[in-house]
Amino acid sequence: MPFKKLHADIKEILESLEITIPTPFQSKSIPVIKSGANIYCTAPKDSGKTTTLVLTTLHKLKCQQVGVAPRALVLVENSEKALALHDEFIKLSKYDAVRVYACDDREHIDLLKSEIFEGVDILIATPKTVNKLLLLEGLNTTQLKIFNIDDAEFLVDKTAYAAVMAITQSIHKCQYVLYSEKMNPMLKRFEDYFMQFAKVVSVK
Question: Which segments constitute the Helicase ATP-binding domain (predicted)?
């Protein structure tokens, strides 16, 4: 059972929310993500992809605060998705267990930069914002352990795609996990860059 092998804090939260049975996608994907490989995760809507992203990221960080630089990065399509995902992390983690920060594109970049400098474990943002932070030396990627892209279909946009390529070039070693409803040639192309030796977990 994938949930039984997660960090004790996560199991406690899941039990309190009465989430006991993993979806078929979660049963298939969680053990592979925990292995540390680069992975393409494809499954239809409402298969449990977002919950999987949250649970495996919390597990990777051992549900604890460490240092000031982000150890997990999650790219999303827009600020609304960033804020919604932030709420999911808060719901599935113990109070103050990890520091989760969602970048709102409507805020000034200097404000985002100063708040990130105060210490963040999980950073959620759009590719455009992360790229801008890197250019302004407002983001330290040296401690990253896991890099997720949620609903990666939005990367068909050339600007977002180019931003992801630029971001990944600044990262030396990290696990990459991409979530989407379907695999497409644009996502497959990442294998030549940062998704080397990637596994595919697919549920239809």
Answer: 30-201
